[in-house]
Write a structure and sequence with these properties.
By secondary structure, this protein is an alpha+beta fold. It contains 18 helices and 17 strands. Strands 1, 5, 6, 7, 8, 9, 10, 11 and 12 form a 9-stranded mixed sheet that branches. A 5-stranded mixed sheet has the order 14-13-15-16-17, with helices on both faces. A hairpin with a 5-residue loop joins strand 16 and strand 17. The N and C termini lie far apart (about 60 Å). The N terminus is likely disordered. It binds 6-bromopyridin-3-amine. 6-bromopyridin-3-amine binds next to strand 6 and strand 7.
Length: about 450
């Protein structure tokens, strides 16, 4: 190596060959399959959505946490046939560890709670906005990542937790301009399935996997999963009976089917009365066919959907009291939801209530008419920035025409011009780009000018 460095000609030659080989393989500028780049305008939309989520969480008394995007694969080996665990973005790392990009956040939250071994004061209300991943064969060309707002309440056994969670979700919808005419929230309890399976003599250990299969039945014909049903010992008559109960779309009909003293009916009646207290009853639809696809739900489950029925579920969640047990820990009652960043944006666009994010948010473009005046432009920009303005200082010699076009592209409010004659009078010219008016401002008064805008 040292000879090569001394013998520069060799280095140049090697570099040239190397460079030629590298340049010949044209770089693929697309992001990896199923992932997205966020250019500034996309980032403004994403930040706006995250701000709505964060504001709702803060107002509802939730505090933010986070966890690594990379987790041990062991966190998701639930063997219940869920889509989310069958599409892990997993690999073996350089330390021979079986790891995966997280497909959901709840298991990470459970791991964090277990790590604290009971030292966490209960109850707690936490939220996060993790990027979650799946590795789906690109046959369907679907995304492999999304950001998912997670809200969870741990340590509250009563349905008050689910009602608080759904009230927070409704508060988000109202905050972005959606009403109960646009969005509904279907609510059910997995106790319904539990009572039916119990009556039919199906052992409780089959409960979770049955729920996952029933969820799949919402999307595919029975024949498509007949094999999995039989593997679980669910013969056709059991499935028919189960599906019949799940057709109930009101608390009244469910009460007729399961009886007034059914735990599932009593739970749902209590939940509905809590929703009345929040004044969100118009958003709620009882629908016994809702089971959700995660194995660990144990009680109330819910999903938000667009009333026009054009889109996939907007959000979903439920109670998961036994999750820590599946990790070998002691159970703590918990409930929560996940709310993806894709469907909600599609809905807001379709309802034409997604704000515009074209403008960069730059307040003032500052430029010097010649190189000699650039230090003065720096001082002007510094004064405006000190007063809290967002300032784009033009860093090279540019013609005025270019600067005004640039300022227009940015959607800037003002253009501050440092010109010879004004500067000699200790002033700069400020043009209001929306109104077209231009005023001269004393340089030492720029701070107060900025704060007065
Ligand atoms: N679980 C999951 C992860 C990533 C996407 Br996109 N959808 C679902």
């Amino acid at each position: 190596i040292s000879n090569a460095i001394q013998d520069k000609s060799l280095l140049d030659k090697t570099n040239t060959d190397e460079t030629r080989r590298v340049v010949s393989e044209k770089l693929d500028t697309n992001p990896p399959k199923g992932t997205r780049d966020f250019y500034p305008e996309d980032m403004r939309l994403r930040n706006w959505l995250f701000d709505q989520w964060r504001d709702t969480a803060r107002i509802s008394g939730f505090v933010e946490y986070d966890a690594p995007v990379l987790e041990s694969e062991a966190l998701y080996t639930r063997k219940a046939g869920e889509e989310v665990t069958q599409q892990l973005y997993n690999f073996v790392d350089k330390g021979e560890r079986a790891v995966t990009l997280r497909p959901e956040m709840t298991p990470s939250l459970a791991r964090m709670v277990m790590a604290k071994k009971g030292a966490l004061p209960l109850p707690f209300k936490w939220f996060s906005i993790p990027q979650c991943w799946r590795y789906e064969r690109m046959t369907r060309g679907r995304r492999r990542e999304h950001f998912q707002w997670n809200m969870d309440i741990w340590g509250v056994a009563g349905e008050e937790a689910e009602a608080e969670l759904i009230a927070a979700m409704v508060s988000f919808f109202e905050g972005v301009g959606l009403t109960s005419e646009d969005v509904g929230i279907k609510v059910n309890s997995r106790l319904v399935i539990g009572e039916v399976l119990n009556e039919l003599g199906i052992p409780p250990e089959k409960f979770a996997a049955t729920c996952v299969l029933v969820d799949k039945l919402e999307k595919v014909p029975v024949d498509a999963i007949q094999g999995e049903l039989e593997e679980l010992g669910l013969d056709r008559s059991v499935v028919e009976k189960l599906l019949n109960v799940l057709t109930n779309k009101s608390i009244e009909s469910l009460r007729d089917t399961l009886g007034a003293d059914s735990k599932a009916v009593l739970q749902l009646e209590k939940f509905m009365s809590l929703c009345d207290a929040y004044g969100i009853q118009d958003w709620i639809i009882l629908d016994a066919s809702v089971v959700r696809g995660l194995a660990y739900y144990t009680g109330i489950v819910f999903e938000a959907f667009d009333r026009k029925g054009q889109l996939r579920a907007i959000a979903g969640g439920g109670r998961y009291d036994k999750l820590l047990e599946t990790f070998g820990g002691d159970s703590i009652p918990a409930a929560g939801f996940g709310f993806g960043d894709a469907v909600i944006v599609e809905l807001l666009k379709e309802r034409n209530i997604l704000p515009s994010f074209e403008e960069s948010g730059i307040d003032t473009v500052v430029f010097a008419m010649n190189e000699k005046l650039f230090p003065a432009a720096i001082h002007a920009a510094a004064a405006l920035r000190k007063a809290g303005q967002s300032v784009d200082l033009i860093l090279e010699a540019k013609k005025s025409k270019w600067v005004f076009k640039h300022a227009d592209r940015l959607g800037a409010k003002y253009c501050l011009i440092v010109g010879e004659s004004e500067y000699e009078n200790g002033e700069v010219a400020v043009k209001d780009l929306k109104l077209g008016e231009q005023v001269n401002v004393k340089i030492e008064e720029l701070g107060s000018w900025a704060t007065s805008q």
